[in-house]
Input
Amino acid sequence: MILKNRVVVMISIVFLIFLFCFSLFIGNYEINFFKGIKLLFGGGDINSLEYKILWNLRVPRAIMAIIIGMLLGSSGAITQTLFRNPMADPYIIGISASGTFGAVIAFLLGLSEGYFGIFGSLFSFLTSILIFKLSNGKRGSLDLSTLLIIGIAISALLRALISLTMYLVGEDSFRVVLWTMGYLGGGDWKKISILLVPLVFSLIYFYMNRYNLDIILLSDEEAHSLGVNIKKFKYKVLMISTFMVGFSVAFTGMIGFVGLIIPHLVRIIFGSSNIKLIPLSMLYGGVFLLFCDTVSRGVSTTMEIPIGIVTAIFGAPFFIYLAFKNRRGV
Output
């Protein structure tokens, strides 16, 4: 990585730390800055209301926003690489909706939150396999129109089933409603510990296969000539990616466009090599989602905007831009 890119990364890390600290003071209950900093670093009264708000609500929420952003950003980069198309995204092609549907099934079965991620990952994986099979042509290429049609159709079907669930559940459907809009307010240390499992596992796997991930960008014939069983490796990477998405949407709902915006911006700045793309998509995914969560809580003192709405406000115009860019062949 050249010196300029290293400087950009270092500035981004510093900004992430600053944003993390700043987000802790955004909310309905105002906390004095100096008192909050003191509580954050182990000083002050641990029995005070400010301490409980800081360590039981705001710190876990900020950490969870970073982790979810890292998972969604890197899974978006992987999805685009696997489908060999920059417009592929877990949210757009229906993988996120399937993860939410899996979490809803676990909710209806009365299972604990630990099973939400398992069911979400399972349904996400099955959906991604279906999309992967139907969208790939005989030569392994992907037709964008086919991808979007299949993704939109599957997403619409699953959203209809989720809506049906909300209708049948009735008054207890508020939790399902939050899943459809994205919600980080339920972040706690237990969920963070669970979400660290797919994050750490994916980090280790991607690092061990960092060179093979760039081989995916080549044709299948070139990959085979380099000694890589490309079909088997693609399915493994696909499984890891949907594993990440499934756990993300199971605990926070459908947060769209993170996996679409972040990999594109990283490619523009740092290039398309997966050796840099995936870890940097994790970094900037965490920065972006924490920023959006801070915005969602800071625009009003009486209410907060669901995080999925905020990411859509940023992401939808960017997706339209990509659509026009792709049509013009720029």
